[in-house]
């Protein structure tokens, strides 16, 4: 939904509190690309710390548990694009997404939720120094901001943001998601919503799990700390570890729910192991119902003289079970008398009835 919508304006304050604005500008400058960053060089590298959460091979997937659109609705995405041709969208740089970069705002002001960040971006409040080798457009910008209630989209997914490493692969090839940290916001709910959004973006743009990376992944050469501790609450001692693997497992769970479902082992040569008889046009297959057990005792049958041999010519609709009822014998006896290994009957065939 456009920012100028009358419906949305009912929920947004008309004036931006100065304290909240300064908090957002300070927090996002700390998380996103700052004027001191230089470009990174990891365009060809997948995330080493994401590999263990990938799915294995040799598995056949069952049907997805839910549709992609259903998961998208759970994310509760609200579109509020920065006005085209203004502020951070003065310069349109095309994006073909290959990565998803996860950030945290590091902005703890109680009012700094997803809508407030959207308002700041739409009004061009998040400025940065534009310089060669640094920020390319004079603004900070990214694609989604997530809080406990919603995910607000600021840029189309085919446009680059300015959030990671300036003219490096982080900005040139990744979609950026910022997670809110404002007081009163549920971190657990925000992480869950971010995992769902990441899974949906993976499916939508064919992005592998190993390319879901933290801001830390993009190197900022020339700085004393080239790798940013971001998102700090998903890193261990400033580096991807157990917490990041835990987050990726969530992403992978939601991704499987809309793609492969639960993998199951299958034979490498045959999927359907049920035998299927070959039936020609002249030899139609005749279905057989379950035979009713015979009431004749084996001992009595053996003690009596063999009955006179009878014959029956198969007609359409005949089954071994119907013939056994008609002639007072059993399916097994008819099969044995005629050397049959299956229950298939062929029209016109003469059967011996014991």
What would your notes on this structure say?
With 354 residues, the chain is of the alpha/beta class. It folds into 2 domains: 6-264, Peptidoglycan recognition protein-like (Lysozyme-like), CATH 3.40.80; 298-353, Membrane-bound Lytic Murein Transglycosylase D, Chain A (Roll). 28% of the residues lie in helices and 10% in strands. It has helices at residues 6-9, 18-31, 68-75, 114-122, 169-173, 187-205, 242-258, 298-303, 320-327, 331-338; strands spanning 60-61, 77-79, 99-104, 144-146, 151-153, 174-179, 212-214, 263-264, 310-313, 350-353. A 6-stranded mixed β-sheet has the order 2-5-4-6-3-7. A two-stranded antiparallel ribbon has the order 1-8. Strands 9-10 form a two-stranded antiparallel sheet. Strand 4 and strand 5 form a beta hairpin. Helix 3 packs antiparallel against helix 6 (187-205) and helix 6 (187-205) packs across helix 7 (242-258). 36% of the residues are buried. Residues 1-16, 34-45, 50-58, 263-273 and 275-284 have low confidence and may be disordered. Residues 310-353 form the LysM domain. Its EC number is 3.5.1.28. Keywords: Cell wall biogenesis/degradation, Competence, Hydrolase, Sporulation.
* Spans of at least 5 consecutive residues with low confidence: 1-16, 34-45, 50-58, 263-273, 275-284
What is the chain-wise order of helices and strands?
A: HHEHEEHEEHEHEHEHEHHE
Could you tell me the radius of gyration in angstroms?
A: 34 Å
Structural class: alpha/beta
Tell me the CATH topology of the largest domain: Lysozyme-like
Average pLDDT, all residues: 78
Count of alpha/pi helices: 10
Q: Under the CATH scheme, which architecture of the largest domain would be assigned?
A: 3-Layer(aba) Sandwich
Rough outline = rod-shaped
Name the CATH class of the largest domain.
Alpha Beta
Strand arrangement in the largest pleated sheet: 2-5-4-6-3-7
- CATH homologous superfamily identity of the largest domain: Peptidoglycan recognition protein-like
Rounded to the nearest angstrom, the distance between the terminal CA atoms is 80 Å
Strand content: 5-15%
Strands, count? 10
- How many domains? The number is 2
Tell me the helix content. Answer: 25-40%
The main pleated sheet reads as: 6 strands, mixed
